Amino acid sequence: MTDTQWPRYEVFKQDNPKKPHEAVGSVHAPDAELALQNARDVFVRRPSAVSLWVVKADNIFTMTREELEANPDFWLKISKAAGTPTTFHLFTKTSQRRSMTFVRHAGQIEAVTPELALREAIESGRFDADDVWVWWVVADEQLIRSGEDDIDTLFAPALDKTYRQQSHYGFVSPRRQKHGRQEK
């Protein structure tokens, strides 16, 4: 049986210019542009974003702390890397307290492959590798970003909406309905 799902894209949201992009979840879409629109619809319903990034999940190189401990020379398995260095974005998960992914953009590094980018990041001392539970490495060209010109169309419409908590609408229990004591 073949997979009938659209590709999965991870979504990174930046709440304000002073905060890093954070992974907030994933969406399925036939292409990156629709993934960006789906991400807006799913994750930016309230006016708290200034930027969205999406990347196809297959284009993320991931490694956990346990995988690094079990295989500290993971980067040796790749063939001799030749080519022009490119920019890779590093995302890290440094806490196990939250139920959501909570992976934050930690910085960028130049390398030829994602494996070498991770090795360089760990050895550089720029990142506190001992505190990292999960590393995600993404090539810059794989990220699809909202642009400065997109801010009004992607994020501004939510500013005019009124949002209410579910409790605002009240709840009528089946027991109250049965006894005719419905709230008005």
Shape: globular
| Helix amount | 10-25%
What are the low-pLDDT stretches, counting only 5+ consecutive residues below 50? none
- Kindly, what is the distance between the CA atoms of the first and last residues, rounded to a whole number of angstroms? 52 Å
| Main β-sheet description | 4 strands, antiparallel
SSE run: EEHEEHEEHEEHH
Class of secondary structure makeup: alpha+beta
Strand content: 25-35%
Number of helices: 5
Cross-sheet strand order for the largest sheet: 2-1-3-8
Oligomer: single chain
The overall average pLDDT, rounded, is 83
How many distinct beta strands?
A: 8
Taking Cα atoms only, what radius of gyration do you get, to the nearest Å? 21 Å
Describe the structure.
This protein is α+β, with helices and mostly antiparallel strands and 184 residues long. It contains five helices and eight strands; from the N terminus they run ββαββαββαββαα. It has a domain of 121 residues. Helix content is 21%, strand content 26%. Strands 2-1-3-8 form a four-stranded antiparallel sheet. Strands 4-7-5-6 form a four-stranded antiparallel sheet. The relative contact order is 0.17.
